[in-house]
Design a protein that fits this description.
This protein is an alpha+beta fold. The protein has one domain: Ribosomal Protein S5, domain 2 (2-Layer Sandwich), CATH 3.30.230.120. Helix content is about 35%, strand content about 30%. It is built from 9 helices and 13 strands. The strands form 2 sheets. Strands 1, 2, 3, 4, 5, 6, 7, 8 and 13 form a 9-stranded mixed sheet that branches. A 4-stranded antiparallel sheet has the order 10-11-9-12. A hairpin with a 6-residue loop joins strand 10 and strand 11. It is globular. The protein starts with a strand and ends with a strand. About 50% of the residues are buried. The structure holds (R)-mevalonate. (R)-mevalonate binds next to helix 4 and helix 5.
Length: about 325
């Protein structure tokens, strides 16, 4: 039997703009996905027959990446993430499945986190019709605080590069680690609206908006500048500055039409107890994120407003094999 865990992620700044090469900063969160596999007489998932069309990420990892043709597997997936909620659950499934499969095939090999991030990215690209940044998969694979950008961002540690043929042409991203001071006195609290929102649909909506109204490019550039400022504040341990950048990023995301009344409701509920608050991930429904020194109070405010809260530290470990 092989078991692996991969964390979800939360984007602090730069979602959507990162698809077009602008920078984004994301952290791995405590909650994630555990995948276990064992050899069996037939293919099953969660005790039911495995239908590849219902599990595109797992199927992609098995067939296209590992070209697995061994004995059938019994696959179990335990998720602590709300799905289609902007927390990178599909990236975490890809990474945990890839890690478990790598261990199953060759238990002595070192876990190839960069390889897993690349595999997950190709699965996301298929699901998002060719427009997907490597943010979710890289953050879940590497853990900590990850910067993804069309250009290498100074004062970060470069880890690898990724590229993709998108409908707008070939894009390349540089993936690096942000240097964040230890022991920051702040938590993130995620609030799920209860409304699932497929990333592919939201990304396609932004692409149509940019086509209809090219002046919206300025919002993308503004998000890029805010992300640089937010990253500088984070690296200096200036939490108030991080909060200001999060608030500013949210305003720009609103003008890309990716917020919703349900997200705004949770954001307003959390604001009085937050250093900064914004939607996170693709938007539409999904989750908002608050940066706070008082996570219990924010979680209560989210719950009272009708949302489902999840508290996490800023930057959990990346994908790992569970023994
Ligand atoms: C999704 O978590 C983040 C988006 O920027 C899409 C992507 O980066 O592929 C909306």
């Amino acid at each position: 039997m092989a078991r692996a865990f991969a964390p979800g992620k939360c984007i602090l700044f730069g979602e959507h703009a990162v698809v077009y090469g602008h920078p984004a900063v994301a952290v791995a969160i405590d909650a994630g996905v555990e995948v276990s596999i064992r050899e069996s007489s037939k293919w099953t998932i969660e005790g039911m027959d495995f239908d590849p069309s219902r599990h595109p990420h797992i199927t992609h990892i098995l067939r296209d990446v590992f070209k697995y043709n061994g004995v059938p597997l019994e696959i179990d997936v335990k998720s602590g993430l709300f799905s289609a909620a902007g927390l990178g659950s599909s990236a975490a499934i890809s990474n945990a499945m890839g890690a478990a499969l790598q261990f199953h095939i060759d238990p002595d090999s070192d876990l190839d986190r960069i390889g897993l991030a690349r595999m997950g990215h190709s699965a996301e690209a298929i699901a998002q019709k060719g427009r997907a940044s490597p943010t979710d998969t890289a953050t879940s694979a590497l853990g900590g605080c990850v910067v993804v950008s069309g250009e290498l961002v100074s004062e970060t540690t470069h880890i690898f590069d990724a590229s993709l043929e998108t409908p707008e042409g070939e894009r390349t991203w540089s993936i690096s680690r942000a240097i964040v001071p230890e022991g920051l006195d702040a938590w993130i609290v995620l609030g799920f609206t209860g409304i699932g929102s497929p990333t592919g649909r939201m990304v396609a909506g932004v692409a149509s908006l940019l086509e209809e109204d090219p002046s919206k490019e300025t919002e993308m550039e503004a998000i890029g500048k805010i992300t640089h400022a937010g990253l500088a504040a984070l690296s200096a341990g200036n939490l108030e500055g991080v909060g200001i950048a999060m608030n500013a990023c949210h305003e720009r995301l609103k003008s890309l039409n990716v917020s919703s009344p349900e997200l705004e409701n949770l954001i307003e509920a959390a604001r009085p107890h937050s250093l900064g608050v914004k939607l996170t991930g693709a938007g539409g429904g999904g989750c908002m994120v608050s940066l706070t020194r008082d996570p219990r109070r924010v979680a209560e405010a989210i719950e009272i407003a009708g949302g489902r809260p999840l508290i996490s530290k800023l930057g959990a470990d990346g994908v790992k094999i569970l023994t």
